[in-house]
């Protein structure tokens, strides 16, 4: 089992059927340019309309989660560039900052030239002379910079194609397209408050074709094989292969290349998942849960998973065994998602912590009132953020509550399910000292603590840092301590200084300092068995 540990950058890679994206992986750890050409062969340029028609014939959609048709995006960028008379820009999004996803990281580390093939093909088709590859990991930065050097590409002035790698912090929101574009322009790696279509105005204000690494790699495969041959693999309406990251309650976390339409139960079997998982999270931490019966009958495709109530998203598949509290596992993820806020819009930096606390109240035996309050919070968060992070996080919490009805009833109406939280869903490790977390995003390593012997219930703290402290029905803070994200540090210091009773203090978080994963801390009372170390 994973035990909640972060996945390695390059986990085990396996394939079902004939490899396409992973061709050559059995020969070398990384395909340099020479080996890449021996495995895949040369690639001839394709005109813009022909390339769009190819993407249309193979039904190519973005593989980063949104699933937007690539042909439509390509034509939109080309039209905007012609209308405005400016050169467009091509951006490869290789950020992949979700802890449960590693497919793009594997591609960039092991087959970077396949990704570059597709990106340069698209750049030639739309007349772009600038290529930006966005990454967040040191390994992907090294591999891509090496690949650019192998092709003689650089960012020097006067070059026919200026190419560079944009390294951003490992944060959930830095992989959002507008955040990547903003950082490529020298700004912070956070989504802007104003939403502008990248195809109209992206990097440097130019029309920008942005898609993720797997999408460009799929385009390169199709350009070599042709649409007819490409369509022989997988489903008729979603041809080709998909890259999946399988983790959670599995014996062998892996990235798997498989034809679309492969049974989900076969994917789980290959990774060593329990024969009867109590649930399978599809699409990652902005995805949705499938119950045991539905997961057994499901096949892997965007349309099929959505019809079953799941999601393909960025291709993350995470089963849960029967020996852990599923809602407790969801609470760990909900807390992590809340901490991934960029701290710049209220629905995100206030709403998501409130949703995590609401889920904790449900698990602590808060009853139907706590469940209704949680539903109101998640509903209020949606469609009000600067990016899709609040929406996806709220959807994850809602799906968790809906999927595990028996466990939910045990927590809401009884004393809990009686199972411990084992932390089997992978979460991101804290960045090493000195690497930075990107401005004011990320955890600060501090916590705000209340001294109950001094607190007099003035309530100023809740006014200053409402994202961390709320008042209970008795007028006193409802928490004894709260982890402080970087974006709340200044307000937390102000709350400490303004407390009339001197009842607040900032201290180092010992769990963070010791490098341990943090499991939920329950309030005294009901539900203790749900998240404890075992049955009472």
TrEMBL record:
Family matches, as InterPro entries: ComplexI_51kDa_subunit, Nuo51_FMN-bd, Nuo51_FMN-bd_sf, Nuop51_4Fe4S-bd, Nuop51_4Fe4S-bd_sf
MF GO annotations: 4 iron, 4 sulfur cluster binding; metal ion binding; NADH dehydrogenase activity
Protein known as: Oxidoreductase
PANTHER family with a match to the protein in the record: NADH DEHYDROGENASE [UBIQUINONE] FLAVOPROTEIN 1, MITOCHONDRIAL (PTHR11780:SF10), NADH-UBIQUINONE OXIDOREDUCTASE FLAVOPROTEIN 1 NDUFV1 (PTHR11780)
SUPFAM superfamilies, A to Z: 4Fe-4S ferredoxins, Nqo1 FMN-binding domain-like, Nqo1 middle domain-like, Nqo1C-terminal domain-like
GO annotation, biological process: cellular respiration
Residue span(s) of domain NADH-ubiquinone oxidoreductase 51kDa subunit iron-sulphur binding: 327-371
Family indicated by similarity: Belongs to the complex I 51 kDa subunit family.
Necessary cofactors: FMN; [4Fe-4S] cluster
Top-level taxon of the source organism: Bacteria
Residue segments, region Disordered: 181-201, 517-536
Key words of the record: 4Fe-4S, Flavoprotein, FMN, Iron, Iron-sulfur, Metal-binding
Gene3D superfamilies referenced in this protein's UniProt entry, alphabetically: 3.10.20.600, 3.30.70.20, NADH-ubiquinone oxidoreductase 51kDa subunit, NADH-ubiquinone oxidoreductase 51kDa subunit, iron-sulphur binding domain
């Amino acid at each position: 089992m994973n035990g909640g540990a972060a996945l390695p950058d390059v986990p085990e890679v396996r394939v079902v059927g004939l490899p396409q994206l992973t061709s050559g992986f059995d020969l070398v750890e990384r395909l340099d340019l020479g080996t890449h050409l021996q495995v895949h062969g040369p690639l001839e340029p394709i005109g813009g309309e022909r390339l769009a028609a190819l993407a249309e014939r193979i039904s190519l959609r973005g593989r980063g989660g949104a699933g937007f048709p690539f042909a439509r995006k390509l034509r939109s960028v080309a039209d905007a560039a012609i209308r405005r008379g400016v050169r467009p820009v091509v951006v490869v999004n290789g950020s992949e900052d979700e802890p449960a996803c590693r497919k793009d990281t594997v591609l960039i580390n092991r087959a970077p030239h396949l990704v570059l093939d597709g990106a340069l093909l698209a750049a030639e088709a739309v007349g772009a002379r600038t290529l930006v590859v966005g990454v967040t990991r040191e390994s992907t930065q090294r591999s891509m910079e090496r690949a650019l050097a192998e092709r003689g590409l650089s960012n020097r002035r006067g070059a026919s194609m200026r190419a560079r790698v944009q390294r951003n912090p490992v944060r959930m929101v830095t992989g959002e397209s507008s955040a990547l574009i903003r950082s490529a322009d020298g700004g912070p790696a956070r989504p802007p408050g104003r939403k502008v279509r990248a195809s109209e105005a992206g990097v440097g204000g130019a029309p920008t074709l942005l898609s993720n690494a797997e999408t460009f790699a799929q385009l390169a495969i199709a350009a070599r094989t042709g649409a007819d041959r490409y369509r022989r693999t997988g489903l008729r309406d979603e041809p080709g292969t998909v890259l999946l990251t399988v983790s959670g309650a599995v014996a062998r976390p892996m990235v798997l290349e498989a034809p679309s339409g492969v049974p989900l139960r076969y994917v789980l079997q290959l990774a060593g998942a329990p024969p009867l998982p109590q649930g399978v999270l599809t699409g990652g931490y902005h995805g949705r849960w499938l119950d045991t019966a539905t997961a057994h009958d499901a096949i892997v495709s965007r349309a099929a998973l959505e019809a079953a109530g799941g999601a393909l998203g960025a291709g993350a598949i995470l089963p849960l065994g029967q020996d852990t509290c599923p809602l407790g596992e969801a609470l760990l993820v909900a807390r992590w998602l809340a901490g991934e806020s960029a701290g710049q819009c209220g629905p995100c930096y206030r709403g998501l912590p409130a949703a995590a606390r609401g889920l904790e109240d449900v698990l602590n035996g808060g009853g139907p009132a706590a469940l209704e309050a949680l539903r109101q919070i998640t509903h209020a968060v949606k469609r009000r953020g600067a990016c899709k992070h609040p929406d996806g996080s709220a959807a994850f919490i809602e799906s968790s509550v809906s999927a595990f009805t028996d466990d939910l009833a045990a927590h809401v109406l009884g004393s809990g399910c009686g199972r411990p939280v084992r932390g089997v869903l992978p979460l991101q490790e804290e960045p090493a000292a000195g690497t930075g977390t990107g401005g004011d995003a990320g955890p600060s390593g501090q916590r705000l603590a209340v001294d109950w012997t001094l607190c007099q219930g003035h309530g100023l703290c809740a006014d200053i840092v409402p994202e961390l402290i709320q008042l209970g029905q008795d007028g006193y803070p409802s928490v004894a301590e709260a982890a402080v994200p970087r974006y709340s540090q200044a307000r937390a210091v102000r709350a400490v200084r303004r407390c009339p009773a001197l009842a607040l203090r900032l201290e180092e978080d010992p769990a963070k300092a010791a490098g341990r994963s943090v499991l939920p801390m329950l309030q005294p009372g009901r539900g203790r068995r749900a998240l404890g170390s075992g049955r009472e």
